[in-house]
Amino acid sequence: MKTLRLHHIGLIVENIDNAVEHYRLLHPNATTSPRYVVHSQGVSVLFFQVSKDLCFEFIEETRHPSAITTFKKKGINFYHVGYKSSEFDNTIKELEESGYKIFDTIISEAYQHKRVRFVLSPDLHWLEIIEE
C-alpha cells in the first residue's frame, strides 16, 4: 500500500516521564513532543522521536477505564504500529476489503484533530491509521 508511511510504535507505559528517562539512555539525542491528552480515549501521549523516520508513542492512562485498560489488565505493553496515510479513506477501504477489522473514527488531539482509525489485522495486530 503505497499511501502508508511508518510513523511510530505505540507503547503502553505506567508513567510517560519514566519511559522518557529510560529510553533517553538508549537514544540520548532523541527529541520529545509536547504531551497530548486524547480525551476520547482516556489517555495521554508523548512522541519520542528517535530518528527522522521513527518515533515511539508513549501512552499513559488518564482515566479508568480507558482505551488501553484491557491491554494493561492482560499485561500487554506493546500496543500498535502507527502509519500515516495521504489517502486516508482509500487506505481504510482497501484494508477493510483485505480482511482487516475497522474500528470507529477518532478525531485526535495528538494529530492536530485529524482523523485516526484503529484496525485489527487478520494476524490480530493493531494498526493505527492517521490522516496525513
Protein architecture, described:
It is built from three helices and nine strands, in the order βαββββαβαβββ. With 132 residues, the chain is α+β, with helices and mostly antiparallel strands. Strands 1, 2, 3, 4, 5, 6, 7, 8 and 9 form a nine-stranded mixed beta sheet that branches. The longest helix has 11 residues, at 16-26.
Q: Tell me, what's the shape?
A: globular
Q: Roughly what fraction of the amino acids lie in strands? A: over 45%
Gyration radius (Cα, Å) is 15 Å
Helix content: 10-25%
| N-end to C-end Cα span | 15 Å
Quick check: average pLDDT? 95
Instruction: Work out the helix count.
Output: 3
Class by alpha and beta content: alpha+beta
- Largest sheet descriptor: 9 strands, mixed
Residue stretches low in confidence (pLDDT < 50, at least 5 long) are none
H and E order: EHEEEEHEHEEE
- The count of β-strands is 9
Helix and strand arrangement:
Layout: E1 4-12, H1 16-26, E2 31-32, E3 36-38, E4 43-51, E5 54-61, H2 69-73, E6 78-85, H3 88-97, E7 101-108, E8 114-120, E9 126-131
Salient structural properties:
132 residues; alpha+beta; nine-stranded mixed β-sheet
In short, what is this structure?
The protein is of the alpha+beta class and 132 residues long. The chain is 20% helix and 45% strand. The protein is built from three helices and nine strands, in the order βαββββαβαβββ.
